[in-house]
Amino acid sequence: MRAEAKTEALTARTAALTASGSGWLGAARRDAVARLAAMGLPTKRDEYWRYTDPASLTAATPEPAALFDAGDEAPAFDGIDAVKLVFVDGMFDPAQSDDPATAGIEITHLSQAEGVDIHWAREVYGVLEARGQIPVQRPLATLNTAYATQGFLIRATAKAAKPVSFIYHHKSTTSDALLHHCIKMEPGSELTILESGPAAARMTSVMEVEVADGARFHHIRAQGRDHARRAATHVFSRIGAGALFKSFTLTANGCLTRNEQIVELVGNDGVAHVAGAAVGDGTFHHDDTVFMTHEGLRCESRQVFKKVLMNGAVGVFQGKILVKPGAQKTDGYQISQSLLLDGDSQFLAKPELEIYADDVKCSHGSTSGAIDDTALFYLQSRGVPKRVAQSLLVLAFLAEAIGEIEDEAIAEDIRLRLEGWLQRHEH
Amino acid sequence: MDGVELEVRDGVDRETIETVQAMSGKYKHGWETDVEMDYAPKGLSEDIVRLISAKNEEPQWMLDWRLAAYHRWVKMEEPTWAMVSYPKIDYQDQYYYAKPKSMAVKPKSLDEVDPKLLATYAKLGIPLKEQALLAGVEAPEGERKVAVDAVFDSVSLGTTFKKELAKAGVIFCSISEAVREHPELVKKYIGSVVPPTDNFFATLNSAVFSDGSFVYIPPGVKCPMELSTYFRINAENTGQFERTLIVCDRGAYVSYLEGCTAPKRDIPQLHAAVVEIVILEDAEVKYSTVQNWYPGDENGVGGIYNFVTKRADCREARAKVMWTQVETGSAITWKYPSCILRGDDSQGEFYSIAIANNAQQADTGTKMIHLGKRTKSRIVSKGISAGRAQNTYRGLVSMHPRATDSRNYTQCDSLLIGDKCGAHTVPYIEVKNNSSRVEHEATTSKVDEDQLFYCRSRGMDEEEAVALVVNGFCKDVLQALPMEFAMEAQALVAISLEGSVG
Question: In a 10 Å sphere around its CB, with 0-12 CB exposed, 13-18 middle and 19+ buried, how is residue A356 labelled?
Fold first, then answer.
């Protein structure tokens, strides 16, 4: 019954899609089609979809999403000097973009990659995604590997002069975007990737990041602010010895966002931090699903996820720290917290630990509750108006997540966006 | 260390190795009692359900209830979500009913019970004489009494202190007796907390349960003594399906203890129990378990497969329940004693120590379902893994929209002894209102080297030192146990970990 439903959904969802292309890319896509056929699409009865109904993500066509004018604030990361690559409804728009050649790193659009044998990319494209299917299947990511034709292959061999900024515009109410980026960080290299914008009525994205020994990778993302948009994003990363991976996501608005982070610490002494701050009002369903796997010795991982929810918004956190046998001296930390600003909002969490090595330090914490009345009262007694006091406390609550951003200018940009959101949503 | 993998290393004398070897897989209660048994034919069918019902001289409604459960069960699938793995159970290759032949005519009192059976309990240290106390413990003021219901395979041998309890209006008897003597109470409450449709194992139990205890505490009565049921599996290839029902009426109080053991056998045995507790306004129930079923040998051969559904329903305002469990036995443990906090201001507490050594696998935890306003719950779980064992805490804390101003605090700590075992935590947290506060904390660590070194520098050997450190790790839970059980549990913690260091 269930398997049939999954297959039927898959047939409908992929009816208008073709896994095209020749060469290595075509082969990777066809392989994904075969893997996907064996999985089918997720349903609400799947363990890792119990808190988020995937129906609107797996439906044949996206629900129309009204456009939103975010003209009341500057675009995200506007003041950051970066190589800008602009997508409109999931299609790369060279006219609005900087010339990728100016970046000083290798940047190739997927459409140009088919004919040429980009040897590094064939070891990343669909490979990290396929590895991330065990033990939990992520069919939407495989769907993306099979059918995405938009996205970039990026390779850094040294410290990049400036960040690469993906900007996603949403102009059509019915757009259905599939974006697939691959990033290869060669030993000792360093790069920051920025992502911003609502992308499309529905977006399904995959980013595969291979961080070789001693490389440093930073990822900062601002999702929003269209209310009706939907997104399923996946970041698969494999982190080498002494390498660093940091990813932060700000989510404001959007009726459904599912952000998956699948991290493998394969080398010794690797560091992986994933963090998120989500603010939602009304029809807002936000899901962070994180799988952190420790294989190397002495690796450090942190997961810091904070959500501020009001007027019936729903926050979901599913996070796992898996320490494989032999991954001794692991230091794993995970915190998931929600601030419920009224009685209608919900927080659903499943913070897991799965540990097969004894000399490790792993902890997780999860809390949920309203704003602390005592703190509010204290600020008010000092003459701070209630609305301002409330915003201050919300920002303080989110501070630990924002603290995961290393670049101070980018962190300040995120902070200002949050302050703006809070001002617009004061109640 | 695994008994089989011991190697003589430099600097370790042979005597030490032999001592460790002798201890590994040590299980005190692994002997069996040689009595003639009356078995129902092997396998499970509608006829077997009818036969069990007939053996218990049950009324038609009880049989119908069982048959409905049976017909549902045959259509159900065994759950696979727990982090335990075991060979497929052949449900047709089991006996579902085993009764000592000497119990064919029901003894009028415990004095008439076959001395061999009574000797079994004497050897286990369970007092079936009415003046006696739990073995090994002196009475603090020579006054503590414990009433015992002794269940042997599929039947209850008898219940002590019945008269004295009856004076207080307390009913304490086997469930089969309760079905006959107090049908109105049983009919009203059975299946009202764990419905026969609840889950695969609960449905199986509803079809074939043989015996277990029934407790009714009338309004306003503080049960004059602790009540206890002792389950012993003796017969081979026989599943035990006990069913316990405790009803604590308004303003009443009872403390109930449960113990269990089984002989060492190479073939795994099935145990699927259901415990239901109904707690009415202002009443309080304390339920303590020391689960010490045979865990299998160090290679994972044999042992009890323990699939248990335990649930308490705080049905009215200010009802209170406290689960305390020490899980040291069983090859497989699948057990989630839960609290439904329906009444306003009701409270649920869950204290658990789960120890898995050698090849044991435990997947255990609790569910706290907050439905009433201002309900409170607290979860303290301590998991200890050693050898090649896997130990999982799995729990749910749910705050419904109506459960305003409620509180939960959860603490799950895991301790790993050795690098071949696993410790896992799978909590589900569902908060649907904002005036409630939910806090969950979990840690995983190894036995602290400094603490061990300190103990050893004071002349303790390594096993004693580990036992002491582990007992310290468990103390929050041990303190929640009634005194007699606390002593036993503390000793058990040490025994269960024997052979785990080396």
Answer: buried
Domains in chain B, number: 1
With b meaning 16 or more CB within 10 Å and e meaning fewer, what string describes B334-367?
A: bbbbbbbbbbbbbbbbbbbbbbbbbbbbbbbbbb
Domain residue limits, chain A:
2-371
Q: Select from A356, A372, A373 the residue whose CB has the most chain B CBs within 10 Å, as the one to mutate to test that interface.
A: A356
> Which residues on B lie below 8 Å from A338 (Cβ)?
431
Q: What are phi and psi of A9, to 5 degrees?
A: -60, -40
Q: Which of B359, B304, B415 is CA-nearest to residue B24?
A: B359
Q: Give me the domain span that covers residue B264.
A: 3-496
**Any CB–CB contact under 8 A between A372 and chain B?**
no
Cis peptide before B50, with omega less than 30 degrees from 0? no
ipTM above 0.85, yes or no: yes
Q: Which residues of B touch A346 (CB under 8 A)?
A: 430-432
Q: pLDDT tens-digit profile of B237-285?
A: 888 899 999 999 999 999 999 888 888 888 888 999 999 999 999 999 9
Contacts of B418 in chain A (CB under 8 A): 358
pLDDT, tens digit, 9 for 90 and up, residues A184-231: 999 999 999 999 999 999 999 999 999 999 999 999 999 989 999 999
Of the candidates A401, A403, A402, A379, the residue with the CA atom closest to the CA atom of residue A390: A379
Residues of chain B positioned with their CB less than 8 A from the CB of A354: 83, 422, 424-425
Shortest CA gap B393–chain A (Å): 9
Tally Cβ neighbours within 10 Å of residue B100. Answer: 23
- Cβ pair B117, B156 in contact under 8 A: no
Give residue-wise pLDDT tens across range A395-407.
999 999 999 999 9
Distance CA B21, CA B314 (A): 47
**B299-354 residue pLDDT tens:** 888 899 999 999 999 999 999 999 999 888 889 999 999 999 999 999 999 999 89
Partners of B430 on chain A (C-beta within 8 Å) are 346-349
Give the residue on B whose Cα is nearest the Cα of A327.
B419
Considering only CB atoms, B442 lies closest to which of A325, A353, A357, namely A353
Which pLDDT tens digit goes with each residue over B339-364?
Answer: 999 999 999 999 998 989 889 999 99
Residue B502 belongs to some domain of the structure: no
Do the domain assignments include residue B501? Answer: no
Would you tell me which residues 28-47 of chain A have a C-beta closer than 8 angstroms to some C-beta of chain B? Answer: 47
Tell me what pLDDT residue B20 has: 40
**Do residues A254 and A227 make contact, with C-beta atoms less than 8 angstroms apart?**
yes
